[in-house]
Amino acid sequence: MRDFANESRYPMIPMEKAIEIILEIVRPLHPVSIARDELLGHVLAEDVRAEENMPPFATSHMDGYAVVATDDSKRRRVLGEQDAGAQLDVTVRQGTAVRIMTGAPLPPGADAIIPVEETTETDGYVSLPGAVPEGQWVHPVGQDYAVGDLIIPKGSVVGPPEIGLLANLGRSDLLAYPKPRVAVIATGDEIVAADETPGPGQIRDGNSYALCAAIRETGAIAQRVNRIVDNRRALYEAILEAVSETSVVVTSGGVSMGTRDLVKPVLAELGTVHFGRVAVKPGKPLTLATIKGTIVFGLPGFPVSSLVSFENFVRPALRVMMGHRALWRPEVTAYLRHDIAHKPDRTEFQRAVIRQKNGGTWWATTTGSQVSSRLRSLMGANALLRIPR
Amino acid sequence: MRDFANESRYPMIPMEKAIEIILEIVRPLHPVSIARDELLGHVLAEDVRAEENMPPFATSHMDGYAVVATDDSKRRRVLGEQDAGAQLDVTVRQGTAVRIMTGAPLPPGADAIIPVEETTETDGYVSLPGAVPEGQWVHPVGQDYAVGDLIIPKGSVVGPPEIGLLANLGRSDLLAYPKPRVAVIATGDEIVAADETPGPGQIRDGNSYALCAAIRETGAIAQRVNRIVDNRRALYEAILEAVSETSVVVTSGGVSMGTRDLVKPVLAELGTVHFGRVAVKPGKPLTLATIKGTIVFGLPGFPVSSLVSFENFVRPALRVMMGHRALWRPEVTAYLRHDIAHKPDRTEFQRAVIRQKNGGTWWATTTGSQVSSRLRSLMGANALLRIPR
Fold first, then answer.
1. Is the dihedral of CA B63, B67, B73, B77 positive or negative?
2. ipTM score here?
3. Which residues pair with residue A49 across a beta bridge?
4. CA proximity to A115, closest of A73, A154, A67
5. A–B: how many Cβ contacts below 8 A?
6. Interval A257-310: pLDDT, tens
7. Is A206 in Cβ contact with B86 (below 8 Å)?
8. Which of chain B's residues have a Cβ under 8 Å away from the Cβ of A206?
9. Which of A375, A378, A384, A386 to mutate to test the interface with B (most CBs of B within 10 A)?
10. What is the pTM of this model?
11. Which of A42, A140, A173, A372 has the most CB atoms less than 10 A away?
């Protein structure tokens, strides 16, 4: 028989302190060159500047007639048609006009567009209102951007508009932060993989699957170690192998105080444990270590504790690694629709549904029993209520 | 020379009417069987019920001692250790206790747990406080869920907790709505692909790339037709080919009133045009057609018009096809930090940054010039301001 460890050797630290330590240790990954078609959701690690003007030539913003703005004749000879994507070889002068399509380059001499709706064309002549303001319905050269303009600053998250701009600029292969590779290791004698049949006293693991999904949702690459680790030797080897291949390792279970709770001693043997207990509920036994430059999070084994700890501590760390400046989900102050139980010694997170009343105040209802084994308390929840210490 | 079509044959309809028509036509895709590891983000098309109890046996919620709750002796003989994942062959009676680990099954006879912190063990005997409430620190059979319970209702979006529950249940291959395949066709003589060099009067296309990114961000599969279509025959064939292979076709450009604006006549020739003009800015020439059961959106060619029309009309349609009930992004009422120009004849969408003041009211600042060619007006924006007609 082994001994219970009756007292944790790790002091309990406040949640704020734990996050401070994480943010001191975690650094953005080294930027790599990523093709434009793979860039969606990545954070750029270089400034993107224009190497040409947009538009590169003055263009018409309307279907209509290209004219000399100061020309006040009401009837003009039509010299031809200027389509988009070509350049007609005529010059517009007083008394003449060129039919023009949206997006087409202005013919030489023209400096305004009269929209087709204000005109009538018959027998090669067009009737129109007369003089118009210079530049009317014209996109001048460089209106959208000019050579040298900073188009997408370093640190931007690449979304659809940025992808469009990069295509406009003819740019691909940009320096950006890669997606961290994250290994997930489930521990525990009582669990088997989801596709196995549990023996007596066993249940199927859900945590490693839920954590992999949460990692993917965060934008990182999840790699489930397809083996449940249930003794010290196996855990030591699984972590050692995982740290050599990934930027982050997440373990699930084995961090409380039972005789089988092996994660903390193995982490301490392999590297440096930065903290081993946090004053937060759920998630008290949360552990952070570094081993050969890889960050290791020891998450608790109860399903809710595991996912809520991921949300509070691992997700912001992954976002730092991916180059994000915005680490946190939006936060609002909400009123409670009912009383809740709360012990004031830890920062507590309860799963809740929040709704806004008429675009104004937010109201929260918790999702039933908040016992930390009950994964169902996360279903349908759209918020975590933070209840201060 | 061809004629301008001076009047659109399509009546201008209000935005609300356009959305009503879209929602009448678009239906969820036929559900298919999807493996658990691929389910993240999909909407379930079947109810998931429990086929077993969770926990399947009563378990300890703490490291400690399994005892008879009513036993009031202060010192008891320790019969052995009950680890998680096994089943010890002893029965707990008055005067005895079994060491037990978190997650381990309760030994026969035991009906409460005394946490290790409240005990001292020496020489095979444990000192503890005496009688405790029945069920203390015990997870009874079926506490999380019981056989037959509805665990994940049809229509749920699969997130990390649902993935965890499906793993717990040993379920894979669930009926869910697939991702629609969406073809994107760029039109226009003036554009070339992003990796080509523009000739005189030409620019590189950005729209089809931005739209593909927006489609992927919505969770659908984007397929860029790698060919710019610039004449009626080519457009006819490209659309015909695309509708045979995809659930949705999105064209960009070619829907205003110039002589080269070929999309509407080709759509009318191939199928049914449901509307061809909408009172919305940007996006007036937006067109909806159905061809052999495939939905076709004709989006305007200006980059901003194209992406904003996607957001307002195509994204909700794709969400319907993917089985979502929540079609719209969150909406709040915001105050303007400055005056804006607005013509009251169309519902207008301006790109803006909105921020919340102290968890209360929202304030909006538009992102500079709102001209619809200026893709940069979308960058950094976190909201579209809807300005009513």
1. negative
2. 0.91
3. A150
4. A67
5. 280
6. 666 678 999 999 999 999 999 999 999 999 999 999 999 999 998 899 999 999
7. no
8. 163-168
9. A375
10. 0.92
11. A42
